[in-house]
Amino acid sequence: MKLVKITKSENLAHKRVYEDACATAHALDLLGERWAILVIRELLLGPKRFGDLRADLPGISANVLTQRLEGLEASGIVKRRKLPPPANIQVYELTDWGYESEPIFQAMGRWAARSPSHDPTLPFGTVSLVLSMRTMFDPARAEGCDLTVGLKLPNDGFMVRVMNGAIEVERGDPAGAGTLLTGTAQVFAAAFYGGVPLADLEAGGALKLDGDREAAERLVSLFPLPAKAPAAE
After folding, report:
1. The CATH number, out of the four listed (1.10.10.10, 1.10.8.60, 3.40.50.720, 1.10.1740.10), of the domain defined by the range 17-100
2. pLDDT (tens digit, 9 = 90+) per residue, 28-49?
3. Cβ–Cβ < 8 Å for 215, 147
4. Theoretical Cys-Cys bridge with 98: which of 3, 77, 183, 225, CB 3.0 to 4.6 Å?
5. Domain 116-220 has what CATH class?
């Protein structure tokens, strides 16, 4: 039997599509393959190496990740580039159009948070934490609030600024912040969304708070979850 190499273009040509002119249907053509939308999610905060993407998406195989990246690149959502010396490594990042997808994640997050079957105890990554903060932030609760808090996570850090009813969560060295919270994404989620008091997390050794406790407590209060939808009868 003669083996035939399947090329990238052939793979894409056989991709299943809805053949529907509705833009929503076309969005599913672009994002509907398993793992595709989570690959985009992981790139919303900036470029990543292939190995980092795979590490941040537990359960995905190298082969499937390669296929999804190729498909998203062919669709104009993802691009690859080589970092200049001394790094000299290839990274994947979203195109300008790809970055425009963040409101899709916010809308889906707000909608799915109301699901009675949503399990908040499942693994929760750093990118998911930051996107959820941008999504669940309540401007009304932040009225008159002016604060800066640093979040220190394993191998990453962010500066959170709340002012004039708006929030910015940007990657950066949090060491200079007057208030610094140190923990994992799962621990921060417990504080922001699970209602676990900061003092309890500190007492258990899961979280460390340095600086202005009042600012930290105020920050934690700015992310109310929507009410759950009625369960099916």
Report:
1. 1.10.10.10
2. 999 999 999 999 999 999 999 9
3. yes
4. 77
5. alpha beta
